[in-house]
Amino acid sequence: MQLHHYQLVHVGWENKCRVYGCSIHIDIKNEKIWIQLNGTEVDIPEELINMGVPKEDIVIGFHSPYKRQFTDFAVG
């Protein structure tokens, strides 16, 4: 299985404190786009659909496997 990880993180310093955090985490595995984390206001699944990605190729990974069956997206 080929697995790709993509993350958007912010890294740096604010005053004398280290700042690090992940805003977006997306994996591509088994030819599906897994949205693992979306800490933004952007509706990533909607953006993907608008770009032509079918709903059945998008997995909302931060939902439990049980909850995924109740969405319009892939269960995994």
Written as H for each helix and E for each strand, in order along the chain, the element string is EEEHEH
Which superfamily, in CATH terms, is the homologous superfamily? XisI-like
| CATH fold-level label | TATA-Binding Protein
Number of domains: 1
Number of strands: 4
How far apart the termini lie comes to: 14 Å
**What shape does the CA trace take?**
elongated
Describe the structure.
By secondary structure, this protein is mostly beta strands. The protein contains two helices and four strands. The longest helix has 7 residues. The radius of gyration is 14 Å and the shape is elongated. The model has no long low-confidence stretch (mean pLDDT 94).
List the defining traits of the structure above.
76 residues, four-stranded mixed sheet, 2 helices, 46% strand, 4 strands, TATA-Binding Protein, mainly beta
Nutshell version of this structure?
This protein has two helices and four strands. It has helices at 44-50, 65-68, and strands at 3-14, 17-29, 32-38, 58-60.
Topology of this protein?
Layout: E1 3-14, E2 17-29, E3 32-38, H1 44-50, E4 58-60, H2 65-68
Parallel strand pairs: 3-4
Antiparallel strand pairs: 1-2, 2-3
